[in-house]
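Objective 1b. Sequence-to-structure analysis of Maf-like protein DDB_G0281937 isoform X2.
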Amino acid sequence: MAPKNLSFKIILGSSSMARRKILADMGYDFTVMTADIDEKSIRKENAEELVVALAEAKADAIMSRLETTEQLEENTHPTLLITADTIFFGYILPTSIGIEVAVYQGIIREKPSSKDEARQFIKSYSGGQATVVGSVVVTNLTKGIRKGAWERSEVYFHEIPDEVIDSLIEEGIILNVAGGLMLEHPLTLPFVDTVVKSNLVGFHIHGIKEY
């Protein structure tokens, strides 16, 4: 199958296998570059602002490694840089109560710092709920225009067995994803009860900020 994007080039600014698969399944041809940024140094008051700021920071870091804007403008085909970020809010069902949901709000969960923290994250989702906030930022490197959007989803889980959690941690992939959880992972997906998505909220930045 011929790639859809014959008139423009795509750079995916992410090492995420899930994001690569999405673009590949949609029929796009692309190259991959990753951004080396200190995500912990970027802090915002709310989740939506944070995921947007992180996606933009990744784009700026990758841009600094590419050719100058003048050189890109000479290219016959426009080049689009796609960056993204995802975080989790944890909502936990305490075992001491059982019949009620106690919501621990305001706790932003990014990539787990250790296997122990990953285990703690996943066990807290078991039989409970999490809020997922994600962003996508597309930067036209040729025209110097950036657009993006964020989305919030409520995810409800069945009980996740300890042996499944052990397998996820042993595999290691979940140590590199926000909240220590991949909803589309074959081991995780059977324990996802319901996903309730909000409307996609878009934003438009007319110029690329300095980097």
